[in-house]
Design goal:
Layout lengths: L5 H9 L4 E7 L7 E2 H8 L5 H9 L3 E3 L2 E2 L5 E2 L4 E7 L16 E4 L3 E6 L16 H8 L23 E7 L2 H12 L4 E9 L6 E5 L1 E4 L7 E4 L7 E9 L3 E8 L6 H8 L24 H10 L6 E9 L6 E5 L4 H9 L1
Length: about 325
């Protein structure tokens, strides 16, 4: 079920079997930011449209009062939010959600995933995912994974946009998975990162492990965790940010976000790894208001999976696909 209107949401609330409550105290020094944008950055699996519907349904309070989505969050504010959680369905439902299909044949398809869409159903997020859309589009998807992940060979983060390859049968799935395992898949990402890099081209080689202080996050470590290697090259510099091209040798969870943050250049807008703080250019005139304006068009990490290349399992030919930068990143670059 997709909640598309306020009446849908209120009807769902009347039958709600589960909910999650948030109590968020805004720390001192926090710059002003719209309530809906701020909540997207701190609440897991949230999108701006969903948050706006919750605020409209009076499920969010600030300092004990109902406010609008445009309310500017201030230091010491207390936000209380009630998030309805869909019960786990017996079966994953097909949903008529538009897909940006770059390529499709009898064996696989390549899709351009928008930012904000989760790859497959999981706790508190059983609808509106890429899998729900795929089930409506095709009756033929690989069953190599758990029932919640038909066809899914690899994933990119909810807040990351870009290319994914989907397998339609188990043999194709296995052959694609082998290429990912051998790290022979060609993947190129573009990102807007904070600051200007001393080295315009380089390699980040450090292990990645789950954070001991926050199990939802990952961190760069020396000896523990899994090997991770990221190659980067600066494409263009701006006043206080850089447009960077990134290639992966390995594909760990949050790898690009963790690695860039570990060298002091987090991805602009990244709510988890420091991308929503002013890290460079603080001496520029009216910097605070300028960053607030830029973050308003980029409520997620400015990261896009731009290129995907692999050996087609059936034809044995190397195929390569590219996608244009999405509107939010192009708008950000224009403003920069």
């Amino acid at each position: 079920m997709i909640l598309t209107s306020l009446s849908d949401l209120k009807g769902f609330m009347s039958k709600m079997v589960d909910q999650k409550k948030y109590r968020i105290e805004i720390p001192k020094g926090k710059r002003k930011e719209r309530l809906d944008i701020y909540l997207v950055s701190v609440i897991e699996n949230a999108t701006r449209s969903k948050i706006q519907k919750l605020i409209e349904a009076q499920l969010v309070k600030v300092n004990g009062e109902f406010v609008k989505s445009s309310y500017m969050v201030l230091p010491n504010d207390l936000i209380e939010a009630t998030i309805p959680i869909s019960p786990r369905p017996d079966e994953i439902e097909a949903e008529e959600i538009p897909l940006d299909i770059i390529f499709e044949d009898s064996f696989l398809l390549v899709v351009n995933k928008p930012a904000g869409m989760v790859a497959h159903p999981a706790y508190a997020n059983y609808t509106g995912t890429l899998v729900n859309a795929l089930l409506h589009h095709s009756q033929k998807l690989s069953k190599s994974n758990e029932p919640e992940r038909p066809g899914i060979v690899h994933r990119i983060d909810k807040g990351t946009s870009g290319l994914l390859v989907i397998a339609k049968d188990e043999w194709t799935h296995a052959k694609l998975a082998e290429q990912f395992s051998r790290h022979s898949i060609e993947r190129e990402y573009w990102a807007v990162a904070w600051g200007k890099f001393k080295e315009k081209k380089g390699t980040i080689d450090s292990n990645i492990a789950r954070s001991k202080s926050d199990r939802k996050k990952f961190t760069s470590v020396k000896s523990e965790g899994k090997t991770a290697v990221t190659y980067y090259e600066v494409i263009k510099e701006y006043d206080f940010t850089s447009l960077v091209k990134i290639n992966l040798k390995t594909g760990r969870t949050h790898q690009i976000r963790v690695h860039l943050s570990s060298i002091g250049h987090p991805i602009f807008g990244d709510p988890t790894y420091g991308g929503r703080n002013i890290l460079f250019g603080s001496t520029l005139p009216k910097m605070k208001s300028r960053v607030e304006n830029l973050l308003s068009v980029m409520p997620r990490q400015a990261l896009h999976a731009k290129t995907l290349g692999f050996i087609h399992p059936q034809t044995k030919e190397f195929v390569k696909f590219e996608s244009e930068l999405p509107e939010d990143i192009t708008t950000l670059l224009e403003k920069l």
